[in-house]
C-alpha cells in the first residue's frame, strides 16, 4: 500500500491486509487486443501482471511482450478479404459506407486502396486455443457487434470489455452503439465509461458544430444486472483490482459488497473491501 494515511473507518493495518489478500489471489490478467491499441496509462501500475495477445492483420509495432497473431478477428474464421484504406487504421473486413461517410466527414480516410487476402480467427477459437481472456479490447472497425454476438459462449468469461465503434454505420453492416450496449447488458455487463468524438470535415470550417460519430465504451462484468451469480472467485479478484486502477471506485465498492454477501471473499477482506473509505485510499498491488 502507498501512503500511511487512512480515511473513514479503515485502519491502516486492515487496509494493508486487504491489499495483501488481493495481491496474493490475483492471477495474470489476460487481455485480447484486437486492433493493436496501446493500453491506457491507468494500466501501468499493473505492468508484469498483464498478458496480452494482439490480433491484427496490419500490426507493425505490437505491445512489448505481447503475443502476436497477424490475423483479423471475424465471425467465421478462415480466409477473409481486408479492405485496406488510405488511413490503415480504418481498414475493415466490411465495405466503407460511402453515403454515410459523405455526410459526416473523413470519407477520404476510408478510401479503399487494396483488397488483401488475410487469415482470420474467431473469438471462440482464440479462447479455445489460448485460454480464456479476462479483458477484450476490440477495435474491429464495424464488426464489433457481429464478433461479440457470435461468441456468447466465451464473452461472459471476460470481466472487462473495451469497444471502439460507430454511433453511425461507417461501414456497410456495422451496428451502432445502442445495439452493442443492449447485447452486453443482456450478457451481464454495465457500461461504466463512454467517450465520443466527431470527424470534422475539412471544408466545413471551425464554426460548424460536428455531431459525434464514433465512440469508445468500457463495460465491466456486473452480475447485479440480472441478479445472477456468475462471477467466479478469480474473476472477482481481477474485477476488483481493475475497478481500482481504472478509476471506477464506486463500482468496485458496490461489487465488493455484493461479493461479500455471496461469500466469495474471506470474512476479513470482505469487511474491509465493503467500506467506501478503502476505495479512497492510495494502494498498489
Could you explain the architecture of this structure?
- With 285 residues, the chain is α/β, with parallel strands linked by helices.
- The chain has a domain at 39-233.
- Helix content is 29%, strand content 22%.
- The chain has nine helices and ten strands.
- The chain has helices at 12-25, 98-104, 123-130, 144-149, 177-186, 233-245, 249-261, 267-273, 276-280; strands at 29-34, 50-55, 67-69, 72-73, 78-85, 112-121, 135-138, 160-166, 189-197, 214-221.
- A seven-stranded mixed beta sheet has the order 3-2-1-7-8-10-9.
- Helix 4 (144-149) links the parallel strand 7 (135-138) and strand 8 (160-166).
- The longest helix has 14 residues, at 12-25.
- It is elongated and about 60 Å long.
- Residues 1-8 have low confidence and may be disordered.
How many DSSP-defined strands? Answer: 10
The percent range for helix content is 25-40%
Largest sheet: 7 strands, mixed
Q: What is the strand arrangement across the widest sheet? A: 3-2-1-7-8-10-9
> Looking at the structure, what is the overall shape?
elongated
Succession of helices and strands: HEEEEEHEHEHEHEEHHHH
Keywords:
7-stranded mixed beta sheet, alpha/beta, 285 residues
Amino acid at each position: 500500500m502507498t501512503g500511511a494515511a487512512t480515511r473513514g473507518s479503515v485502519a491502516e493495518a486492515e487496509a494493508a491486509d486487504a491489499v495483501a489478500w488481493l495481491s496474493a489471489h490475483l492471477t495474470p490478467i489476460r487481455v485480447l487486443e484486437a486492433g493493436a491499441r496501446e493500453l491506457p496509462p491507468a494500466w501501468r501500475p499493473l505492468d508484469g501482471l498483464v498478458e496480452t495477445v494482439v490480433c491484427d492483420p496490419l500490426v507493425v509495432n505490437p505491445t512489448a511482450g505481447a503475443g502476436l497473431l497477424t490475423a483479423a478477428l471475424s465471425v467465421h474464421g478462415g480466409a477473409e478479404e481486408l479492405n485496406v484504406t488510405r488511413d490503415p487504421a480504418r481498414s475493415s473486413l466490411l465495405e466503407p459506407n460511402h453515403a454515410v461517410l459523405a455526410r459526416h466527414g473523413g470519407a477520404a480516410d476510408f478510401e479503399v486502396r487494396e483488397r488483401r487476402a488475410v487469415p482470420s480467427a474467431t473469438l471462440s477459437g482464440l479462447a479455445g486455443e489460448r485460454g480464456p481472456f479476462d479483458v477484450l479490447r476490440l477495435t474491429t472497425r464495424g464488426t464489433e457487434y457481429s464478433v461479440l454476438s457470435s461468441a456468447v459462449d466465451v464473452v461472459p468469461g471476460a470481466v472487462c470489455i473495451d469497444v471502439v465503434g460507430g454511433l453511425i454505420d461507417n461501414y456497410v453492416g456495422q451496428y451502432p452503439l445502442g445495439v452493442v450496449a443492449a447485447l452486453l447488458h443482456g450478457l451481464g455487463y454495465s457500461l461504466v465509461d463512454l467517450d465520443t468524438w466527431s470527424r470534422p470535415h475539412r471544408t466545413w470550417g471551425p464554426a460548424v458544430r460536428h455531431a459525434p460519430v464514433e465512440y469508445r465504451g468500457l463495460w465491466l462484468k456486473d452480475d447485479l444486472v440480472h441478479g445472477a451469480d456468475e462471477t467466479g472467485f478469480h474473476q472477482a479478484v481481477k474485477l476488483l483490482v481493475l475497478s481500482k486502477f481504472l478509476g471506477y471506485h464506486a463500482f468496485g465498492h458496490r461489487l465488493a459488497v455484493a461479493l461479500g454477501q455471496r461469500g466469495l471473499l474471506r470474512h476479513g477482506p470482505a469487511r474491509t473491501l465493503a467500506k467506501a473509505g478503502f476505495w479512497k485510499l492510495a494502494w498498489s498491488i
